[in-house]
Amino acid sequence: MTRFLTRRIISAIIVLVLMVAALFALQQFSPADPARAMVGDRATPEAIAAARENLGLDDPFLVRLGSYLQDVTTGDFQTSYRTKQPVASDLRATLPATLELLLFAAMFALTGGILLGLLTARRGLGVFFVRAIMLAGASVPIFLLGLLFLLLFYDQWGLLPGSGRSSHAVPDGPTGFYTLDSIVHLDPSAFWDSFLHLLLPAIALAAGPSVGIGRSFGSALNAALASDYVKTARLKGLGWIGIVFKHAFRNCLNSALAMAGLMMGIMLGTVAIIEQIFAWPGVGNYLSVSIRATDVPAICGVAIVFGSIFIVLNALVDVLQTIADPRISLDSTD
């Protein structure tokens, strides 16, 4: 276990350093001038030159890269051109909303994917109906699905709220997750209101990934049900539910976890779209505004945070796979 975790930590650090270095290199090709953004468009050439010297923009590339890497390790992502605030401060204000949305979307995606996989493993006409739903879910673009949810559940039927995180006074802290903070402060009405606000964006974000997880898990489950040890279990009189949950489920969970790790990358890439549609005040919304304003430090700061989340989650998935499937050895995992 120690050897496995050490390899994962070292590889994650290497990938993070390369990612930060690549983002820094891309900043050099940006049309935005950090010195001009700092002093304003009407500044004199002398003021711009002084700002460039103060920011170290005249230093050699490797010196500036080393300084940037050092700043990132301390949580300093430079200053936003748009808000004039440290990017780290902006992220602290918006990241909890995005993480809460991603957490619920991941739970919905994994749960829905496993249920879809179980349903496709059954025989009968219902399987074709489930597969048709999966095909439709995989084909509908995420922005169209979000707009459809708004039209039906919010505008037409009025069942669920369509924007924001809450319409209730949510207690402050300690996590920034409205649902968890409501539980900590023993406020069930605030929890329920926050949960209802989460449902539409989280389900829209999880729809596509749940189909991918369901396909992967269903294929593995069908292969397991056709194996010899399952046939032996049937001859012993064991029913379908007993066969699946006593013999096949754990062996097939590895494929669902592997696909879930890949699907998290998709959710991180599409969360900005969902936050725009549902007016969710998270990092995705912050990123969208920053892109329109060519706010390069903010864009790179979000990219570093999202990249770090994806790397950590994939390392966690590797650990969970070894726990779910004892046939995978920690010391032999690449």
Automatic annotation (TrEMBL):
Membrane topology qualifier: Multi-pass membrane protein
TM segment ranges: 9-29, 101-121, 128-154, 195-213, 256-280, 296-317
Domain of life: Bacteria
Cellular compartments annotated: Cell membrane
Pfam families, A to Z: BPD_transp_1 (PF00528), BPD_transp_1_N (PF19300)
ABC transmembrane type-1 domain: residues covered: 95-321
CDD domains per the UniProt record, alphabetical: TM_PBP2
Keywords on record: Cell membrane, Membrane, Transmembrane, Transmembrane helix, Transport
Protein family (similarity comment): Belongs to the binding-protein-dependent transport system permease family.
Full protein name: ABC transporter permease
Species whose genome carries this gene: Nocardioides vastitatis
